[in-house]
Write a structure and sequence with these properties.
- By secondary structure, the protein is of the alpha/beta class.
- It contains 10 helices and 5 strands, in the order E-H-E-H-E-H-E-H-E-H-H-H-H-H-H.
- Strand 4, helix 4 and strand 5 form a beta-alpha-beta unit.
- Helix 2 runs parallel beside helix 3 and helix 7 packs across helix 9.
- The protein is globular, with a radius of gyration of 17 Å.
- The chain starts with a strand and ends in a 5-residue tail after the last helix.
């Protein structure tokens, strides 16, 4: 997996690089010190996963996420930050982050988080889910779940649980192609852009465990 580090603190980038480079399946392909540089490096290097801080001088992580989406970057973005406030967590996830972890995370757990995000999972830690549940229902797709079929609600619950299409197919005894069709229908009906936003809708509206 090709990973890009975006953080304004050099010591943090150095620590992350030192740990990740001893992982046999992870290659750190570059670093950036702010959001603008991060977007440019992402488009140049085409990493699989970007580890992104939220608060940086100039263009912050949330704006960088929006710019990456507008540019069509396929990279999965894992927010790695020390900020746990609801006002930071929710906008980051709505902007397209595939996960949100804190800088005091165990290094082995961080490596597992990178692998999970790369595999297409949505990483919602309990603290993040709590912040989302505290939100009102006015976010993307709010109140639009009535149009989902029972099967689509089952698929959505598994998306919120962080399952990949392959895992959902196994759990529901469906083909991956059928699962992809259900996912596309869910995104359309909820009027959301991606699996992360669908998972947020599910958490806010009590779909799943």
């Amino acid at each position: 997996m090709r990973v890009l580090l975006v953080d304004d603190h050099q010591v943090v980038r150095r620590g992350l690089r030192t740990f990740l480079e001893v992982q046999g399946d992870i290659e750190v392909v570059g670093e950036a010190a702010d959001g603008d540089e991060g977007v440019a490096r992402a488009l140049e290097l085409r990493p699989d996963v970007i580890l992104m801080d939220v608060r940086m001088p100039g263009t912050d992580g949330i704006e960088a996420l929006r710019l990456l989406r507008e540019a069509g970057s396929p990279a999965r973005v894992l927010i790695v930050t020390s900020f746990t406030e609801q006002r930071t967590v929710v906008p980051a996830l709505r902007a397209g982050a595939a996960g949100y972890v804190y800088k005091d995370i165990d290094p082995v757990a961080l490596a597992d988080a990178i692998r999970s995000v790369r595999a297409g999972h949505v990483l919602l830690q309990p603290e993040v889910a709590g912040a989302l549940l505290a939100q009102d229902q006015s976010g993307p797709g709010g109140g639009r779940g009535g149009g989902l079929t029972e099967r689509e609600r089952e698929v959505l619950a598994l998306i919120a649980d962080g399952r990949s299409n392959r895992e959902i197919a196994r759990a529901l005894v469906l083909s991956e192609k059928t699962v992809k069709t259900h996912v596309s229908n869910i995104l359309m009906k909820l009027d959301v852009a991606d699996r992360t936003q669908a998972a947020l809708w599910a958490v806010r509206n009590g779909v799943g465990g």
